[in-house]
Amino acid sequence: MSAPRIGVLALQGAFREHIRSLRRCGADAVEIRTREDLDGLSGLVLPGGESTVMGKLLTEWDMMDRLRGLIRDGLPVFGTCAGLILLCTDIIGHPGQPRIGLLDASVRRNAFGRQVDSFTTDLELSPFPAVRPLEDRAAPMRAVFIRAPLIERTGTGVEVLARVNGLPVAVRQRNILAVSFHPELTA
Questions:
Q1: Is 182 a known active-site residue?
Q2: I want to staple 76 with a disulfide (CB 3.0 to 4.6 A). Which of 43, 121, 144, 167 is the partner?
Q3: Is 107 helix (H, G, I), strand (E, B) or coil?
Q4: Which residue, among 18, 25, 22, 26, has the nearest Cα to 1 in the 3D structure?
Q5: Strands 167-173, 159-164: parallel, antiparallel or unpaired by DSSP?
Q6: What percentage of the chain reaches a pLDDT higher than 70?
Q7: Residue 18 among the catalytic residues
Q8: Among 31, 124, 135, 184, the one annotated catalytic
């Protein structure tokens, strides 16, 4: 059985860290920079970075509609931080910002504060304990929040997987998984 081919949007942001993490997990991780790079993927990661820049580049480089179509058709996608913002239907305070807009949620950019307000915390991702090795099941996941977005509203089809101070920071809707934090910066 061959390794899954996972694309990481490499227009801007933390794509190198995601590629390194995916390769450690045994995936064939590849950089996505053009429409053609989207062919033949098993899944896609939208990394953290600057959501406005990524959205503009996806539009200017004629990738947005193709990407939206692939996700709508079932391509598994994982958005972290800025990737979460790109996936949401509503970006509070930025209605004109280009976005993929398939995750039925409203998000506020930089809601946890500026760079100096970054923090780490332990999360228990409730639906996933059986995925971890038996000896690790009780161990929470370390989460790094850097200028993190806040999910303020979720639609009825969106499952909340983890919270910080009662606020959603990890969600899933069908083939879309999105988090406010940076899992690529931890083991």
A1: yes
A2: 43
A3: strand
A4: 26
A5: antiparallel
A6: 87
A7: no
A8: 184
**Residue 41 sits in which domain range?**
5-185
Place of tokens 């995936």: 27
Statement: residue 111 has pLDDT above 90: no
Question: Among the options 17, 36, 159, 182, which is catalytic?
Answer: 182
- For the entire predicted model, the pTM comes to 0.88
Calculate mean pLDDT across residues 94-118. 84
* 28 CB burial (10 A radius; 0-12, 13-18, 19+): middle
The residue count of the chain comes to 187
Spot the catalytic one: 36, 60, 81, 94.
Answer: 81
Active site annotation includes 88 = no
Question: For residue 144, what is the domain's CATH number?
Answer: 3.40.50.880
Instruction: For 130-154, write each residue's pLDDT tens digit.
Output: 444 545 445 577 777 877 898 999 9
State residue 132's pLDDT score: 47
- Given CA atoms 160, 166, 170, 176 in this order, what sign does their dihedral have? positive
